[in-house]
Amino acid sequence: MSRVYNFSAGPAVLPEEVLKEAADEMLDYRGCGMSVMEMSHRSKVFDAIIKEAEADLRDLMGIPDSYKVLFLQGGASQQFAMIPMNLMKNKVADYIVTGQWAKKAYQEAQKYGTANCIASSADRTFSYIPDCSDLPISEDADYVYICENNTIYGTKFKTLPNTKGKPLVADVSSCFLSEPVDVTKYGLIYGGVQKNIGPAGVVIVIIREDLITDDVLPGTPTMLKYKTHADADSLYNTPPCYGIYICGKVFKWLKKRGGLEAMKAYNEEKAAILYDFLDQSSLFTGTVETDSRSLMNVPFVTGNSDLDAKFIKEAEKAGFVNLKGHRTVGGMRASIYNAMPIEGVKALVEFMKTFEQEN
Ligand SMILES: *Cc1c(COP(=O)(O)O)cnc(C)c1O
């Protein structure tokens, strides 16, 4: 068996320990004679799996009792509609557009009411996070929306926007559990798990209880109401059982490694290795303004698209895969999520140094 260093933006690298444990339990989960994929979601065994996953996530993030944790499907993209359908009571919401995912959410919300773009970094190809300390928040805004870590452009909010009392809604798909978070600053936090937590097919929503109501937009499908899932503890219908099981294992892995404080320190150390190299390289340059740099997604270029292509090809041969930038921006992007070991980042930088000397 040989595993590569996988720098994919998502679905992405998972901890090897977790994969091995899952392999060991594949045919017979803890003596019950079947795989987690084969068991009823109403069984006692699965009930323990989902309850324990939730408890560990609450523990890791310090989620207060006044927030519900929901394990849903439909990916992060389904939330682009679910959020306005459930939260747009006044049919007004403010969006901060810092990249393609935020833009998609903003465009989707326009179907359901008035979505205002109150700040954007489109003027400099989304290479920075705008100052959000005093934005023109709408008087009757139901919420203010951000994409906290911009997977494609490699930027991250270092300070949350001043929402002037309105609930903050954040897409954290690509920075979920990468550092400690103060949940009380948000009305709703959500993310697809396939970036930093588990397999594609699960989306986690952490929502303040007062935002869960029956007062949703007319025509909202039962399955797209937060209340439906909150009332049923994420078991209204068959949940993505196997994905939740793997997420649960990743939560335990994170706890064993010291929780989110420890992960933050580790992620900062990893990112610094790459950024420090980029800052002094004569060939490679980072594309993001220094104070907006993501710890998770690091885009960079040589300035020559032929050379970029050559680098990506040679890197792949050397066992560094999925370094191609998003199809809309080109260049390279190294996604260095929680499960990417520091050895992988060090080895990548060594490889980049050699490439620089030879080209
Ligand atoms: C990947 C990604 C999405 C889209 O996720 P899907 O689960 O494919 O819908 C949305 N937002 C961010 C920040 C992402 O990184």
Explain briefly what this protein structure is.
By secondary structure, the chain is an alpha/beta fold.
Beta-strand content estimate: 15-25%
The coarse silhouette is globular
The biggest sheet amounts to:
7 strands, mixed
Low-confidence residue ranges: none
Q: Spell the H/E element sequence.
A: EHHEHEHEEEEEEEHHHEEHEEH
Rg over CA atoms, rounded to whole Å, is 21 Å
Share in helix = 25-40%
Mean pLDDT across the residues is 97
What is the CA–CA distance across the termini? 32 Å
Bound molecules: pyridoxal-5'-phosphate
How many helices? The count is 9
Query: How many E strands?
Result: 14
Q: Structural class of the secondary structure composition?
A: alpha/beta
Record the strand order, biggest sheet.
2-10-9-8-5-3-4
Describe this structure in words.
By secondary structure, the protein is an alpha/beta fold. Helix content is 35%, strand content 16%. The chain is built from nine helices and 14 strands. The chain has helices spanning 16-24, 44-61, 75-87, 100-109, 226-231, 241-256, 259-280, 305-317, 342-358; strands at residues 5-6, 67-72, 92-97, 114-120, 144-147, 149-150, 155-156, 168-171, 188-192, 203-208, 285-286, 297-301, 320-321, 332-335. The strands form four sheets. The protein has a seven-stranded mixed β-sheet. A three-stranded antiparallel β-sheet has the order 11-12-14. A two-stranded parallel sheet has the order 1-13. Helix 7 runs parallel beside helix 9 (342-358). The two termini are 32 Å apart. The structure holds pyridoxal-5'-phosphate. Residues 10, 75-77, 101, 147, 151, 171, 173-174, 192, 195 line the site of pyridoxal-5'-phosphate (PLP).
